[in-house]
Amino acid sequence: MTAAIRPCWSIQDSKALYNLKGWGAPYFQVNELGNVEVVTSDAAIATKPEVISGAVSDKYDSTVALGQPLDLAKLVSDLTNQGLQLPLLVHFDDILADRQRRIYEAFADVISGCGYPQPYRGLYPVKVNQQRHIVEAVAEFGQRYGFGLEAGSKPELAIALTTLQPGDGEIVCNGYKDRNYIQLALMAQMLGHRAIVVLENIRELDVVLQVANEMQVRPLLGVRAKLWERSNGHWSQSVGERAKFGLNTAALLSVVERLRQENLLDCLQLLHFHIGSQVATVENHQRAVLEAARIFVHLADLGAPMAYLDVGGGLSIDYNGSKSAAHSSCSYSLEEYARTIVATVKEVCERHQVAAPILMSESGRATVSHQSVLIVDVLGISSVGATTVQVESGTAAVVHRLAQLQDRIPRTSLLADFREVGELKHEALKLFSQGNLSLQERSQVEQLYWNCCQRLWDCVQNSAADNPEAIGLRELEPLMATMYYGNFSVFQSLPDSWAIDQVFPVMPIHRLDEEPTESATLVDLTCDSDGNLDRFVGPEGRISSVLPLHPLNGDPYWIGVFLTGAYQEILGDLHNLFGDTDVVHIRRESHGYRVDRMELGDRLTDVLGYVHFDGEEMVEKFDTTVEQACLGGTLTAEGASWLRRTFRTQLQATTYLQ
Ligand code: PLP
Predict the structure, then answer these.
(1) Helix intervals (H) in 191-311
(2) In angstroms, what is the span from residue 497 Cα to ligand 1's centroid?
(3) Does 314 sit in the ligand 1 pocket, CB within 6 Å?
């Protein structure tokens, strides 16, 4: 469907159309060539603040400037010339560093501004993106701010204790635990890490006491409280009093008593809670922190030397850039978030004359979302444009009726017209199924149906937005949109868009000085009707079922999906055996950028291996079939040789289209 062309289109129009500033600032903008560019700070130039006996002083460098922008379209062109293939996941390490800096500074500024007596210690929850390069980069950049790692399982703890150096930030051990998990945590402690075992349920205490006794280690312990306060977002049902993790009040009290009996109450130092991800309002955070702070001071009153309050994750990302309380958005700033936590804890501790804790947060999305961009190339399009249909006499009556209706649209009511169009199509289907409509007539019905829909849609577009008829026919919008075939798998690269209707900002990364005249939907390669993107960020963050795109012109057309760094890489699955995409990690240099790491995506043999097909065995089977065809005389020796070679090459190729 082609919208009316406006006389002159500017880059500013493109920015507003995709609400780029809303969700992309300060990292993404458009340059004068009409390409998206990435603005990063150079992580390497940030100076390391002094670390005083494990606590970071506030002498951090707050003057880290954003550096020279990097043209994303040019970068993709360079990388494909170097042999990387699309779809491509690009990680920007400097954005990651900048996110950590901003989170740290938000807390550090409030802490120094209000005279809070303890520092902030950020924790990166490894589960949000466990890719080695990401965790190592988090540890590298986070060292200057005292960042630690949060683990939720044994493998994540193994990552944490081998990535951080003793003396770096804390390792907070969450999730259900068995003997081995606790052993690993205490081993980390023996090596000089501050590894805190957070009790998720009361049964874990027996195991901890037993393993600690065997290893002769006094454990560092925390408790996770089940708060009554819950978030109002997607995860609201998995938190609160019936949350699967955490201790209720009775269990908290019995942990204290048991530790007192065992003469280990001094080990209990941390209180943790997590009310869910993507918490929409700062008031929600405030109520949770207040409840937790009250529990904290009571635990301290009971004699535990409480030193840390870990407020979990939940710091939202503004995916649609509307700065609202919508699920895809975030209505508060990083500074408001930090101020809320610091001020609330300070007030409660002062009132109860309890020593204020070191404040920790486990911000996952807020740390890693911005640093990755998925680049998808468009393979082709499919549209349902209007075409003239000649209906000869002798053609089935239903075709004539549809042709007459087409000529009369619009009559008095668009909705009534639409209903009649649907009824006639339904009648035609019945006739076809009974054998009373030919294939040619069926083809005419199909085209006339789309012609009618097109006319109706044109009327909707020309009517006032609040016209009830137009509102009733909004469902025509995605139906009439042009389908753009993207070289990617939603299930592999953007699983949350399928699973929980997560909105990610999507826009072309070039040609932004041209008006995008097509209303489009973006479908993926999988043989699944769910394999598409149909919720897009529009002006001012409004969610639309269509995405404005440019008509294809014979050159590659690249679409970026932004803010994809959290959860997507690990939750992605192998639907249709589309595997990991190629991945590249980029770091800024003083005069350009450096490819820090390139990772080729899965080959056919890799994904086949995941489902237990052995590549070598498949080659043997293939060769046997080729041999039999040779013996049977249906294949020449030359043909056989080509088949063998080509099969081997194919098994080593990308799972995506080349
Ligand atoms: N901490 C815990 C215990 C979590 O379960 C989660 C994720 O849900 C996080 C931290 C990270 O949350 P977010 O990505 O919202 O910051």
Answers:
(1) 203-215, 249-261, 282-301
(2) 18
(3) yes
Tokens of 286: 């405030």
Query: Over the stretch 471-503, which tens digit does the pLDDT of each residue have?
Result: 889 889 999 999 999 999 999 999 999 999 999
DSSP element (H, E) containing 37: strand 36-38
CA distance 562 to 29: 12
Q: Which of 277, 309, 571 to mutate to test the pocket of ligand 1 (most atoms within 8 A of CB)?
A: 277
**Do 120 and 359 form a contact (C-beta atoms < 8 A)?**
yes
pLDDT in tens, 293-346: 999 999 999 999 999 999 999 999 999 999 999 999 999 999 999 999 999 999
Instruction: Give the three-state DSSP class for 184.
Output: helix
Task: Tell me, using a 6 A CB cutoff, whether residue 128 lines ligand 1.
Answer: yes
Q: Are 293 and 349 in contact (CB under 8 A)?
A: yes
Cα separation, 234 vs 109, in Å, equals 31
Distance CA 481, CA 488 (A): 19
Residues 311 and 14 sit within 8 Å (Cβ to Cβ)? no
Listed in sequence order, the residues at least 6 apart from 359 whose beta carbon sits closer than 8 Å to its beta carbon are 107, 111, 116, 118, 119, 120, 121, 308, 309, 311, 341, 342, 345
How confident is residue 378, by pLDDT bands cut at 50, 70 and 90?
Answer: very high
Sheet strand arrangement including 70-71: 28-30, 36-38, 70-71
pTM: 0.92
Identify each DSSP E strand in 480-535 by its residue range. 482-486, 506-508, 518-523, 532-533
Could you tell me if the CB of 361 is within 6 A of ligand 1? no
Is there an atom of ligand 1 within 6 Å of 230 CB?
no
233 lines ligand 1 (CB under 6 A): no
| Cα torsion angle, 492, 495, 498, 499, sign | positive
